[in-house]
Design goal:
Number of domains: 2
Order of helices and strands: HEEHEHEHEHHEHEHEHEHEHEHEEE
CATH superfamily of the largest domain: Dihydrofolate Reductase, subunit A
CATH architecture of the largest domain: 3-Layer(aba) Sandwich
Number of strands: 14
Strand order of the largest sheet: 10-9-8-7-11-6-12-14-13
Bound molecules: NADP nicotinamide-adenine-dinucleotide phosphate
Structural class: alpha/beta
CATH class of the largest domain: Alpha Beta
Largest sheet: 9 strands, mixed
Strand content: 15-25%
Helix content: 10-25%
Shape: elongated
């Protein structure tokens, strides 16, 4: 799988440590990956650490190609060098239940892997899941050394490095801090899922420059332009589940499907939080339930006849708590365990009340905000995060690593919420996340 025009850094006198990604580093679901820092000039001769960082960077870059298709598994990329240090093969985990990145890269390398080096963005698994453990394939291929950017946080699948080391293969895991941080950010949803038993939550909204998500009359279609709306469909395509509140559904009657012009998108699980099961039977969500699952998260207080009517139309209805409102944490924990594929990431396209509920419960990890160059005004017009609010500025949630990207006539602001709560007890999610493991 040699890439046309790619230089082999082992043959260069000076090495550019990181190439621009050939695959886009998709930021819809996880924090955008920043380009790793390149040491200042003069460029060092390519020592082993520099080469290791270069190839780990490539493995991390390759991993992105699996985003949106492998979850709840982690995205993983791998590169195999032959014993002379030339690239012999590379690959990535491309599909849930499909072969792991290491196996694909080793297959691509064939006999050239013997005596070579395997670089992988996440510690190879030692677990029999839907596929055999990668450690077996690595031992069989006869590589002489393994370098992984990040230790596997999954308690069920970890331990691959120790097995390899016991078999006499020098194995380095997480020794390069920049690459370890990059790999951790890349797999933030997976890390959160296996360590806390919760999905990684992105709050997404479109607002005017004066911070309104709807007019005083409740009109919000369309605040952002066409390019931004297309970007939302790309986000949904990479997401396990999309969630909205019943307030938004009643106001806008959204489809919440993925509609892309140039390819088939994946319609994520669509979730509505709706304490009293008010979702209209004639709504677009109900009428498209056959196209992809719609889950109405309700409460035990929801009228039985409403629940029955929705179920009769193919809508999934599940209670989360006694009421009066849906117990969000219970819902998220259930999504994180949902068979057959756990929800690793959740895109919340709520109204202001739903966003406030996520923020107040410390359940949001990230924001993706489209800002339209418009002024709407209106003291009563809805803002993106309603609720009680924090009384003091010192209590405000901080958003880190804010990035601004022009999208058509709008701007997309993305960042991570710094003080996202650990979400209580761990509740490890292990059974569903076993395809890669
Ligand atoms: N510009 C944008 O990006 C954008 C996006 C979405 C919506 N909007 C606009 O926002 C407006 C709707 O916002 P909204 O705040 O009224 O509705 P919302 O946030 O979509 O839904 C709020 C409702 O969800 C239900 N709910 C159930 N459990 C909840 C919980 N734990 N926490 C919070 N809510 C819970 C409650 O109704 P029950 O008690 O009946 O269950 C609550 O009233 C519309 O005008 C829409 O056009 C704009």
């Amino acid at each position: 799988m040699e890439e046309a025009g790619e230089k082999d850094p082992g043959k260069q006198t000076s090495v550019r440590l990181f190439r621009e990604p050939s695959t886009s580093l998709r930021s819809a679901v996880v924090p955008a990956l920043e380009k790793p820092r390149v040491p200042s000039s003069p460029a060092p001769a390519p020592g082993r650490a520099d080469l290791d960082r270069h190839w780990l960077g490539r493995a991390i870059e390759l991993a992105e190609a699996g985003r949106g298709r492998v979850e709840p598994n982690p995205v993983v990329g791998a590169v195999v060098l032959d014993r002379e240090g030339r690239k012999a093969g590379e690959g990535w985990h491309a599909a849930f239940g499909g072969p792991h990145a290491e196996v694909i890269a080793l297959r691509a390398a064939g006999p050239r892997a013997r005596g070579g080096t395997l670089y992988v963005s996440l510690e190879p698994c030692a677990h029999q899941g839907k596929t055999p453990p990668c450690t077996g394939a690595i031992l069989e291929a006869g590589v002489a050394r393994v370098v992984a950017a990040l230790a596997d946080p999954n308690p069920v699948a970890g331990g691959g490095a120790a097995i390899l080391a016991r078999a006499g293969i020098p194995t380095e895991v997480g020794v390069h801090p920049d690459e370890a941080a990059l790999a951790r950010r890349q797999n933030a949803p997976f890390v959160k899922l296996v360590t806390r038993g919760l999905p990684f939550v992105t709050l997404k909204w479109a607002m005017t420059l004066d911070g309104k998500i709807a007019s005083v009359a409740g009109d919000s279609r369309f605040i952002s332009g066409e390019a931004a709306r297309r970007r939302v469909h790309e986000m949904r395509d990479l997401t396990c589940a999309v969630l909205s509140g019943i307030g938004t559904v009643l106001a806008d009657d959204p489809w919440l499907t993925t509609r892309l012009d140039d390819r088939d998108g994946r319609t994520a699980l669509r979730v509505v939080i709706d304490s009293s099961a008010r979702l209209p039977l004639g709504s677009r969500l109900v009428s498209t339930a056959a196209l992809g699952p719609v889950l109405v998260a309700t409460t035990l207080a929801a009228p039985e006849e409403r629940v029955a009517a929705l179920r009769a139309r193919g809508v999934l209805v599940e209670p989360f708590g006694p009421g009066p409102e849906v117990d969000l944490e219970a819902l998220l924990r259930a999504l994180a365990r949902r068979p057959p594929r756990a929800v690793a990431n959740l895109l919340v396209e709520g109204g202001g009340r739903v966003h406030a509920a996520f923020v107040e419960a410390g359940l949001a990890d990230r924001v993706a905000v489209f800002v339209a160059p418009k002024l709407l005004g209106g003291a009563e017009a809805m803002t993106p995060v309603e609720g009680r609010g924090f009384a003091r500025l010192a209590e405000a949630l901080k958003v880190a690593s804010l990035r601004a990207t022009p999208v058509g006539e709008d701007w997309l602001l993305e960042g991570e919420i710094e003080s996202a709560s650990p979400g209580g007890e761990g509740g490890l999610c292990t059974t569903e996340v076993d395809s890669r493991r």
